Amino acid sequence: MGGEMFTAAILCLTLIPIGIAMGFLLLKIQGGEESEL
């Protein structure tokens, strides 16, 4: 059970920042295409 919790913690700590980074990049790309600030 401890191993499953450890794996879940690693997935959360890795997937969440990756998801935030991906969303930020998509917004930056879309904003750059529409208007350069």
UniProtKB/TrEMBL annotation:
Ranges that cross the membrane: 6-27
Keyword Secreted attached: no
Coiled coil: none
Keywords associated with the record: Electron transport, Membrane, Photosynthesis, Thylakoid, Transmembrane, Transmembrane helix, Transport
DNA repair as UniProt keyword: no
Subcellular location: Cellular thylakoid membrane; Membrane
Membrane topology: Single-pass membrane protein
InterPro entries, per database record: PetM_cyt_b6/f_cplx_su7 (IPR012595)
Family the UniProt entry places it in: Belongs to the PetM family.
Subunit architecture: The 4 large subunits of the cytochrome b6-f complex are cytochrome b6, subunit IV (17 kDa polypeptide, PetD), cytochrome f and the Rieske protein, while the 4 small subunits are PetG, PetL, PetM and PetN. The complex functions as a dimer.
Function: Component of the cytochrome b6-f complex, which mediates electron transfer between photosystem II (PSII) and photosystem I (PSI), cyclic electron flow around PSI, and state transitions.
Name used for this protein in its record: Cytochrome b6-f complex subunit 7
